[in-house]
Amino acid sequence: MSELGKIADSVDAYNTHVASEVVRARTDARFAAELRERWARIHETVDWTVSPTGTPLPRLALPQTDDPGAIAEYLFGQGLPGEFPYANAAYREMYLDRDSGTGEEPMRLFAGLGLAEDTNARFHYLSSHQKSLRLSTAFDGPTLYGLDSDHEGVLGKVGEGGVAIDTVEDMTRLFAGFDLTRKDASVSMTMNAPAPVILAMFIAAAKRRFGPDCVANLRGTIQADMLKEVQAQNEVIFPIDASLRFLCDMIEWCVPNMPRWYPVSISGYHIAEAGATPVQQAAFTLSNGFTYAGLLKARGADVNGFGPRLSFFLDCGLDVEYLVLGRVCRRIWAIGMKEVFGANAKAQILKLHTQTSGRSLIAAEFQNNLTRTAVELLLSYMNYTNSCHSNSADEPFTTPTEKYATLASHGQSIIMEESGVFKHMMNMFGGAPGLHLLEQQVEKAILDVFREMDTLGGVLAAQEQRYQRSKIQEAGHAYEKQIYAGSRPIIGLNKYKSDEPMPGVPLARTSPRKQRRQVERLRAFKKKHAKKSPAALQKLAQVARSSGNVFGELVHTVEVCSLGQITACLTGVVGKFRPMV
Amino acid sequence: MTASHACPLRILTAVPICDGHDSAVTTINIELARHGIEVIYLGYHQPASAIVRAAIQEDANAIGLSSYNGGHIVFFQEVVDQLKTKGGGDIPVFGGGGGTITKADERVMKRQGTDRIFPAGTPLGEIMAVIRREYDRIAKPNTRFRGDRALARAITLAESGPGYRRPLKKSAAPKRGQGGFVIGVAGPGGAGKSTLIDELTSRFLQKNPTGRIAILANDPSHPDTGGAILGDRVSAIYSQDNRVFFRSLATRGNLTGLSAVAPAAIDLLRKSGEFDLILVESVGVGQESDPFRTFGRGPKLVDATLFVLAPHYGGRIQLQKIALLNGADLVALNKCDHPMAHTAKAEIQARLDQNGRNQHLHATTAAKHFDPGVDVLFAAIARLGGLTNSPGGEKPCQLEVSA
């Protein structure tokens, strides 16, 4: 049995345990008294607040019951916010307005276009709409595939769909003017196959600006989820085993050296965007997470060391399962990590970033996308996501333009700051009967997928048989057919269509002049370091051939080598990824 | 839903370089095949040069590109321009990219030579109808075609039946009197034939710095629709090279494990005199057929056969039933990193020993890069076929330093 079978069994066993505790609470008077006493103590800790219109409210909503069975079911089955099994939330007070103003601001706005200085300007613009410093970076195609901007045939892609980063100098330009060591700063980078190189560049750029001791203060996330790349997003450079090794090297380096950094964001987003159903998204994402935990453990890493540095990223669309997807994932992760990996409390918590669904946005009557995103945001926050990105309504056509990026940002502010839904009371929804029923159905379906993959030999073996890819493609095909058949209503596309012509939308495109400028800069960098780069690459190759930590070497290599040079060097050592259909 | 004439439409589909969005193209591929079309899928993250090379070698009726992360104006133009300079200017290019390709972009792209853009929201049925109406042309001989294009068209004509008249003039002087050493590669589905062939291709390119290699990849057609998704190119990472001629063949109802055109195609490849090595991959076969007639009666199609199997063949008894094990010149047990491989190796060797033909069993793990087992297998092939196998192993760290 692979770990997945054990995890599925441990969740079932936990559910049985909860059920038996409920029975015990109703039959064992002493246990019932203990529970009632604990319940009373919990109530005592709840502060009260007053809404702006004068309604007094507790800051934590608890089920109104005195029945020991119901108390046991709530405390053990869902857990208080911030308590095992974390169905309700990762922390006790998530979005509540705090007088001190130290509350974590969940909004992250993904941006990336053109050259580093263009994205830098967008960062400065967006951060003027936020309390804390939140910089989330999208990269262009060549960077995502580890290619330099002067690689044959990529010029048209330079700066399109994200920012072009070739060297540490670009990285320095990207974050110019921001104090990355600020306590409330958080940088995230949507970067996978070349993630170790890009993070090494980020570290090198930060050291140049803030000195060698800044590294421990850097806070943020790099996606680096290679399993979902193989299963769905297709940005893979190196063979799978080498990709996983480079990732684990990076995680192991970051755990002691960058204690505030999340070196991997285990992502369902791209799995869902490629077609997966919500259940498949959750099942594949969680199982990928457990696989990373297993790989790191097998390398001898301490689960309580790396566990808290794993983070998650889910897509939130409009299907009903999204009402509970984050809740169910937190619960399965916590139980699996505790029971199968022996993780402590900190390492059991699934920390969640959510992005509204890009696939749900359509070109036809695209202003409707504002409403779609608003609903998805509401669902995301109902799941108590730790951070959130809202898509821009113009994304079916273009990298977000300033106007729609601002509307996307304001959408979050309207929900979180203007509306009172999440401001005053924690746990507004946990314990509602509809949610609970849905949670049970979704959890069961996820465990079924775990068991199916277990029979195939676990995540990596299933992946080799292209199980996940087939499932995702099948689901994506079914979704498209539902739209064409009209059984999945998409307003403005297959229902309530108007005949109005599509309004012109301004596009964010990168001019050929800028693309050439990037190439010139890159060439200048390569020329400047032409004497030092061969030796740096030789050294990197040597570490890659041995069993050394590749990331530890990359931190030095990026000082004199470009992304493309490093990719070519590592490909020479470990080979190329062989894509799957 | 089969096509109106003997030769189904062949469409090459791909996603441009630095773009991994393949869910739209996957849906299109499935629909095309469902409509009786042979889809040659090249995969995502494909440079213009690879798309053009594939379209020419496959003699595709049209190229369909699905682009979702920008840069489409430049990319489509590059494909169209390269087609013109490489002798494929008659191959139309169509594409789509949802809302990312605007009306204004479409106008520019059409002016630059793109044939058609399907805008966001075009119903699948409409896309299929347009493709069948606009691109279904019967292939005719074309004396202006040169090189790979001429060879590719000759295979198409052979495939469509009456047009096959040995149209290649260059066939006068095949190398070494043979026109290339031909190896038939057979084995059950899932044994890793395609991967092994690609790894052998990489050895060939490395060890033989000037020669060319040809690959004929046979895949089954759908029995009801007549369509096919020919996806071998997706994972053939080393075959993206001008020294490789790669042709995907759908079986079109032929049940021998090869397309009916395979013998003619082998003949054309030999007579072109272009290739040192020709690898012919059968569809997945086991006990029921011998695609190359290496065992039993009938003329031999190939110079040697390579039988590939994985450790999951189902036990000793099953091995007895595989007739190809009697006739195969080379046998490879692939996926040797599997725990069952140890037992499998002993069982297969025992089975080969019964033949008394001194057949050597090669243990390979093609999915592993730089697998030494594949090196040994290539050396054996080189010896059999009199190929160059110059020393010089893995390439050292590539030092790319531009001026």
Strand content of chain B: 15-25%
Sheet with the most strands, sense and barrel status of chain B: 7 strands, parallel
Overall average residue pLDDT of chain B: 88
Silhouette of chain B: elongated
Architecture blueprint of SSEs:
The complex is a heterodimer of chains A (581) and B (403).
Chain A: H1 3-27, H2 29-45, E1 48-50, E2 56-58, H3 68-78, E3 110-111, H4 116-127, E4 134-138, H5 141-144, H6 168-174, E5 186-190, H7 195-210, E6 220-222, H8 226-233, H9 240-257, E7 261-262, E8 264-267, H10 269-273, H11 278-298, H12 303-306, E9 310-316, H13 325-339, H14 345-348, E10 352-356, H15 368-382, E11 387-389, H16 402-418, H17 433-455, H18 459-464, H19 467-485, H20 512-528, H21 533-545, H22 550-557, H23 563-574
Parallel strand pairs in A: 3-4, 4-5, 5-6, 6-7, 8-9, 9-10, 10-11
Antiparallel strand pairs in A: 1-2
Chain B: E1 10-16, H1 23-34, E2 38-46, H2 48-58, E3 62-66, H3 72-85, E4 93-96, H4 103-111, E5 116-118, H5 124-135, H6 147-159, E6 181-186, H7 193-207, E7 213-219, E8 228-230, H8 232-235, E9 244-250, H9 262-272, E10 277-281, E11 304-309, H10 316-320, H11 324-327, E12 330-333, H12 341-355, E13 361-363, H13 372-385
Describe what you observe in this structure.
The complex is a heterodimer of chains A (581) and B (403). Chain A has helices at 3-27, 29-45, 68-78, 116-127, 141-144, 168-174, 195-210, 226-233, 240-257, 269-273, 278-298, 303-306, 325-339, 345-348, 368-382, 402-418, 433-455, 459-464, 467-485, 512-528, 533-545, 550-557, 563-574, and strands at 48-50, 56-58, 110-111, 134-138, 186-190, 220-222, 261-262, 264-267, 310-316, 352-356, 387-389. With 581 residues, chain A is of the alpha/beta class. In chain A, helix 7 links the parallel strand 5 (186-190) and strand 6 (220-222). In chain A, helix 1 packs across helix 2 and helix 11 (278-298) packs parallel to helix 13. The longest helix of chain A has 25 residues, at 3-27. Chain A is globular, with a radius of gyration of 24 Å. The two termini of chain A are 28 Å apart. Helix content of chain B is 34%, strand content 17%. Chain B contains 13 helices and 13 strands. Chain B has helices spanning 23-34, 48-58, 72-85, 103-111, 124-135, 147-159, 193-207, 232-235, 262-272, 316-320, 324-327, 341-355, 372-385, and strands at 10-16, 38-46, 62-66, 93-96, 116-118, 181-186, 213-219, 228-230, 244-250, 277-281, 304-309, 330-333, 361-363. In chain B, strands 9-7-10-6-11-12-13 form a 7-stranded parallel sheet, with helices on both faces. Chain B has a 6-stranded parallel sheet with strand order 5-4-3-1-2-8, with helices on both faces. Classes of the chains: A alpha/beta (581), B alpha/beta (403). The interface between A and B is large, with 68 and 57 residues.
